[in-house]
Design a protein that fits this description.
- The complex is a heterotrimer of chains A (795), B (157) and C (268).
- Chain A is an alpha+beta fold.
- Helices cover 28% and strands 23% of the residues of chain A.
- In chain A, a hairpin with a 2-residue loop joins strand 22 and strand 23.
- Chain B starts with a strand and ends with a helix.
- In chain B, strands 2-1-5-3-4 form a five-stranded mixed sheet, with helices on one face.
- In chain B, 66% of the residues are buried.
- Chain C folds into two domains: 141 residues, Uridine Diphospho-n-acetylenolpyruvylglucosamine Reductase, domain 3, CATH 3.30.465.10; 96 residues, 2-Layer Sandwich (Enolase-like, domain 1), CATH 3.30.390.
- In chain C, the strands form four sheets. Chain C has a five-stranded antiparallel sheet. Chain C has a four-stranded antiparallel sheet with strand order 11-12-13-14, sandwiched between helices.
- In chain C, a hairpin with a 2-residue loop joins strand 12 and strand 13.
- Chain C is globular and about 55 Å long.
- The relative contact order of chain C is 0.12.
- The chains are: A alpha+beta (795), B alpha+beta (157), C alpha+beta (268).
- The interface between B and C is medium-sized, with 29 and 28 residues.
């Protein structure tokens, strides 16, 4: 396949070559010479003072090399885990940001909070020794839900933080919203819960720390989506290691979904311990440990209202959300339910006034942070539930009410009342096509047929918009980001003409090795097979912010394209010299540099070779070599969007919801590799369906124990739960990214929960049901059916 | 304990503790890290290998169970020159994998399925994959891959 | 996992004497429950007695009118057995839906019933079919075998060697699985043998039990309609995040009706 494969083609993935052979290299696969293994003792209590931690028996156990507690780290000046994004409340005061020691000091605040770290020769020895640590806990009452945590007299997660309130934040024009509600012909309102999710990438987290006494260099191998950011956060704030003395490697990573885009305590602890012990230290989470130490997602309680005029036009929206932060602030924790949530509340609609208040609340639970979609599925769920309710209460068809309020294609760019300005989009086009593909016209017949079989069938719709491509640094830093959010790429052209790309994003399933190669192949005319993509190693890749927020193609791909531009410019200079022409006369097309208007030309390969054999170069004006680096900082977010239809059936005998059809028409901008985009959408949609129908992180309200703490109890979609998903793209190119791309990693997860729940509510309409909280588990649905029938009977 | 078995077509003799799990023996002692461990409750299926011809979860089998037997892991699927097994090729052709972590288990399950049902329907595939969790693909392209892989295996045999 | 001494006896007699001679020993059949429990460090036997080498424990045969299944027979073998499919298709169907395919390749009938997990499938079949549990010491009637949560009538040192199933006129199993673990939340096995009807419920209570009201209703009239207005007492049922007590009770009746309907489509 020695050919150029460019934008719009679907070459098979380069990365598959190792994965299908079982030759990937994940952190757990790595063995270092003389390596030790660590295991954590984690708190079995949700809330307790640590009166004493006696490690003497553990230290004496066979194979044990060291046992560390929070006090040991504190004595060695190990810092707390930093927060990457600070927000300020309505009153202008910064959020409460309590210390987050890598191992608990004085108090444990959730089941799973680390109490001690045992290092031994083998895993069995470390785990056995951890059981010998004697901890004297003074157990305190715990609080796990946001509503309970705000109640007067609730247990205080921090002695010095009143009402467990991290921040009382708002966005929008409250007065304009109040005025609009006074004028409204109808107000739709809903109280809803956005269920706590546990991301569960299939590869459990793992980390290996190593220290080289000769060079003073630390190395951390970690299951991370953003190794450079781990280097920054861990090096500067936790371990005080100069960044040039710290190498962070994130090799193949088995799925992220946001869960691996935070700096975790275990990363710092293995690195620090390796320095103390002079031997590599490895830690691999067991799944049950991951459940109580991976950051969780979502967990909102929301009251929302939509003001509508007599024609079904939206006037204003008012949203009050309580967002669970967990016991400590994770890397992006407070940013998710605020800056990535409220600015999306306009959806794809014209809503003249929006006001959103968010209280971020501490509880005795695992810290909560970004999970695929991160804030945007929550916003979409609020908007779409309100729209459905308004339609139903006003007797308007739910598709029709969406059309009445959608931002028409010609109205872009569109400034919302909540900061963001959508650059491009065509929600109506997406909706029209999705309606056709979903055969909405034939639905009533299918409903009747299902009814004849004793089943409730429902049709649901959702539209959505998301802010992707995190992020324009100026905007993000203005909103509290403590780092830039640009991306960098280097295009290294070898003398052979082959290319190695070094890029700061991280590939953990997204197909970057393929998509990025297509960009380079098209841009430089280099055969696809001659392009390699390198990522995930801070010693190889100059800099980067990693992969999250559907940013890799949007921001990283743009940096790559910019670096490619620079290579072409340099190549033109070389060609000008070789062809004895002016640089301005050199054209680069189809992999060839030519003098305009002549047949004199050099191939890219010839120019690449020449760059490293500069026998006759004018060295004052032309450097040898062909390698260029670019940083790209976007000027705006990108705004993918779309329309999804879900069709479900409910078996009233059991309450089981069966997904029968799923149709999605998405606008992800320019598509580089349609095969990969489809795969991203499939996966995203199914994770969103997981939230709607199956997944729920459940805590016991009084003990604070995580009840859904294993795959036996945390239900994720399996092959037999899913129908074939029908997809079709409907692209409007992004107006401001170099290739018109918008990002596609989170679309599915953002659009699908609302579509599925719209269908569930629709199915239960005959019983008068107007809202169903997620997840729509069989027990939950059966209870609703039973209660509704009882109510109907009573009336 | 000393045990001996056929691993991907070659005979191996190893010493292990009775408590060693087959997955640990394969990964840690024999350094074949293509077999993955994604959970501790025998649910995810990332560790599926063939033991005496049947797909099993190697995280829930003692290594000693392989004594005198035959084990095949994902590394044993392709030819020595790297030529892919038809099922591997089908996963590649049909974008049946993303992060690659569940892939070895999926492949081993799929090949066992085709042994039992040479021409499986979509429903039979989805049912057979009950013990294999994928978090990336939504399963759609995995199912497509297995349909294609089964067809290729029928042709090859 | 904690270390242990490993034994692999070749006969039931040897296995039984090993078991009798040790204080903290566990029998290893398929290992589908024991090994995960040991991995979680919830069990730590000093000795593991692996039954894998005892050939006499595996196999499916007819002895007179009874179907006899060796204790070490794997679920996949029961599910795939032409003999079981012919004589007791409901049992083959049950076995084909235990766990997942990989579990069925390892898990055994003897291991399943000796463990007596409240959500295991086999106990429902054994109780409803009024099977006999044959051990290294005696034969135990199904009604006497399952005595509590993870508790059976097995004495220390006693090993299940086979299960003896009488034929049924009609039988079927309907299961509502836990959506996450796929274990039974409510599994109902209905069997009609001669005039008697036996109905056993698994997954819903701390251990398998006979739904006597359902049995009475079906004995009077073996039809789905006989169960239409029947409900079961939910007081002793389990409740968890997947299914509360009321819902479990409801599911038991739904599964009972489905099992009856299924059993009427075919015999055995």
């Amino acid at each position: 396949m020695s050919e150029v494969i460019g934008i719009g083609a679907s070459p098979k993935r380069k990365e598959d070559a190792r994965f299908v052979r079982g030759r990937g290299t994940y952190v757990a696969d790595i063995k270092r010479p003389d390596m030790l293994v660590g295991a954590f003792l984690r708190s079995p209590h949700a809330h307790a003072y640590l009166k004493s931690v006696d490690v003497s028996d553990a230290l004496a156990a066979p194979g044990v090399v060291a046992v560390y507690t929070g006090e040991d780290l504190k004595k060695d000046n190990v810092g707390g885990l930093p927060v990457g994004w600070g927000i300020s409340g309505k009153d202008g005061n910064p959020m409460k940001e309590p210390p987050h020691p890598p191992i608990a000091v004085g108090k444990v605040r959730y089941v799973g909070d680390a109490v001690a770290f045992v290092v031994a020769e083998t895993t069995d020895q470390a785990e056995a020794a951890a059981e010998l640590i004697r901890v004297d806990y003074d157990v305190l009452p715990a609080v796990v839900g946001v509503v309970d945590a705000l109640r007067a007299g609730a247990p205080a997660v921090y002695d010095d933080i009143e009402d467990n309130l991290c921040c009382d934040w708002d966005l929008g024009d409250a007065a304009a919203v109040e005025a609009a509600f006074r004028e409204a012909a109808h107000v739709a309102s809903v109280e809803l819960v956005n269920n706590r999710l546990i991301g569960n990438p299939l590869e459990p987290r793992a980390a290996i720390g190593e220290y080289n006494f000769a060079t003073g260099q630390y190395t951390l191998w970690t299951t991370s989506q953003f190794p450079h950011v781990v280097r920054l956060l861990m090096g500067e704030f936790v371990l005080h290691i100069p960044q040039h003395k710290l190498r962070v490697v994130a090799p193949d990573v088995g799925g992220g979904f946001g869960v691996k885009q935070f700096h975790y305590a275990e990363e710092a602890i293995v690195t620090w311990a390796a320095g103390k012990l002079g031997r590599p230290v490895k830690w691999v989470a067991r799944r049950s440990e991951g459940f109580i130490s991976d950051a969780h997602g979502r967990d909102h309680v929301t009251e929302a209202e939509l003001a509508v005029d007599e024609n079904g036009k939206f006037l204003a929206m008012r949203v009050k959300t309580l967002a669970n932060m967990g016991a400590y602030l994770s890397t992006f924790g407070p940013n998710i339910p605020t800056n990535l949530y409220a600015p999306l509340l306009s959806g794809v609609y014209r809503i003249p006034a929006i006001y959103c208040e968010v209280k971020c609340v501490f509880t005795n639970t695992v810290p909560v942070d970004a999970y695929r979609g991160a804030g945007r599925p929550e916003a979409t769920f609020v908007v779409e539930r309100l729209v459905d309710l308004a339609a139903r209460e006003m007797g308007i068809d739910k598709i029709d009410i969406r059309r009445r309020n959608m931002i028409p294609k010609e109205a872009y760019p569109y400034q919302t009342p909540v900061i963001v300005e959508y650059d491009s989009g065509d929600p109506m086009g997406c909706l029209d096509r999705a309606e056709e593909l979903a055969d909405v016209a034939g639905f009533e017949a299918r409903r009747a047929e299902a009814a004849a079989r004793g089943k409730f069938r429902g049709l649901g719709v959702s539209t959505y918009v998301e802010a992707c491509g995190l992020a324009p640094s100026r905007l993000a830093i203005g909103l509290g980001a403590r780092s830039g959010l640009y991306e960098s790429a280097t295009v290294r052209v070898h003398p052979s003409g082959a290319v190695t790309v070094l890029i700061g994003t991280h590939n953990h399933g997204q197909g970057h090795e393929t998509t990025f190669a297509q960009i380079v192949s098209q841009q430089l005319g280099v055969p696809f097979q001659d392009i390699d993509i390198v990522f995930g190693d801070t010693d190889r890749v100059q800099h980067g912010l990693g992969t999250y927020g559907s940013r890799s193609l949007v921001v990283g791909g743009a940096a790559l394209s910019r670096a490619g531009d620079k290579v072409i410019l340099k190549g033109r200079k070389i060609a000008a010299h070789q062809l004895e022409a002016s640089v301005d006369d050199i054209i680069f097309e189809n992999g060839e540099f030519s003098v305009a208007g002549t047949d004199r030309k050099k191939t890219f390969k010839e120019i690449a070779g020449s760059a490293y054999v500069p026998g006759n170069y004018p060295l004052e004006t032309l450097e040898p070599g062909l390698e260029e680096q670019a940083y790209y900082d976007p000027i705006n977010f990108t705004y993918p969007g779309g329309a999804h239809f879900a069709e479900i059936e409910i078996d009233p005998d059991t309450g089981i919801v069966t997904l029968e059809r799923y149709t999605a028409v998405d606008d992800v901008g320019t598509i580089i590799n349609p095969m990969i985009v489809e795969g991203q959408l499939h996966g995203g949609i199914v994770q969103g369906i997981g939230q709607a129908l199956f997944e729920h992180g459940v805590y016991d309200q009084s003990s604070g124990q995580l009840l859904s703490g294993s795959f036996m109890d945390y239900c994720m979609p399996r092959a037999d739960n899913m129908p074939q998903i029908v997809l079709e793209p409907h692209s409007t190119p992004c107006a401001h990214t170099p290739m018109g791309v918008k990002g596609c990693g989170e679309c599915g997860t953002i659009g699908s929960p609302a579509a599925v729940m719209s269908a569930v509510v629709d199915a239960l309409k005959p019983l008068g049901v107007s809202h169903v909280d997620m997840p729509a588990t069989p027990n939950h649905i059966w209870n609703i059916i039973r209660n509704s029938r009882a109510q109907i009977a009573a009336e | 304990m000393e045990i001996g078995f056929t691993l991907n077509g070659r005979h191996v003799e190893v010493s292990c503790k009775p408590s060693t799990l087959l997955s640990d023996l394969i990964r840690e002692q024999l350094s074949l890290t293509g077999t993955h461990v994604g959970c501790d409750t025998s649910q995810c299926g990332a560790c599926v290998v063939h033991l005496n011809g049947d797909s099993v979860k190697s995280c829930t089998v003692l290594a000693v169970a392989a004594d005198d037997g035959e084990v095949r892991t994902v590394e044993g699927l392709c030819a020595v020159d790297g030529t892919l097994h038809p099922m591997q090729q089908a996963f590649h052709e049909n974008h049946g994998l993303q992060c690659g972590f569940c892939t070895p288990g999926m492949l081993m399950s799929a090949i066992d399925l085709v042994k039992h049902i040479p021409d499986p329907t979509e429903a039979e595939i989805r049912e057979w994959l009950e013990g294999n969790i994928c978090r990336c693909t939504g399963y759609q392209n995995i199912v497509k891959s297995i349909i294609a892989g089964a067809a290729a295996m029928r042709t090859a045999s | 996992m904690q270390s242990f001494s490993y034994h692999k006896p070749g006969t039931v007699t040897d296995a039984a004497s090993l078991l009798a001679a040790r204080d903290n020993a566990a029998l290893l059949a398929g290992g589908m429950t024991l090994l995960p429990t040991m991995k979680q460090r919830l069990a730590a036997p000093d000795d593991i007695i692996d039954l894998a080498a005892i050939r006499e424990l595996s196999g499916i045969t007819m002895e007179g009118e009874d179907l006899v299944i060796g204790a070490m027979t794997r679920h996949a073998d029961v599910a795939g057995s032409d003999l079981v499919k012919e004589v007791l298709p409901a049992l083959a169907g049950l076995a084909s839906r235990i766990g997942d395919q990989q579990v069925r390749h390892r898990g055994t009938i003897g291991g399943s019933i000796s463990n007596n997990d409240p959500a295991a499938d086999y106990p429902a079949a054994i109780l409803a079919l009024n099977a006999t549990i044959v051990t290294s010491q005696r034969a135990i009637a199904a009604d006497d075998f399952f005595v509590g949560l993870f508790e059976t009538a097995l004495r220390p040192g006693e090993i299940v060697t086979a299960i003896r199933f009488p034929r049924a006129k009609r039988a079927a199993y309907a299961k509502f699985p836990n959506p996450a673990s796929r274990y039974a939340i409510a599994g109902v096995f209905v069997a009609q043998t001669g005039g008697a009807v036996r109905v056993a419920v698994t997954g819903a209570a701390p251990f398998v039990f006979r739904a006597t009201d359902v049995e009475a209703a079906l004995s009077a009239n073996y039809a789905v309609e006989a169960l239409e207005r029947l409900s079961i007492d939910t007081q002793d049922l389990m409740s968890d995040i997947h299914a509360d007590r009321e819902y479990r009770g409801h599911l038991v009746m739904v599964m009972a009706r489905r099992a009856v309907a299924e059993s009427l489509k075919r015999s055995g």
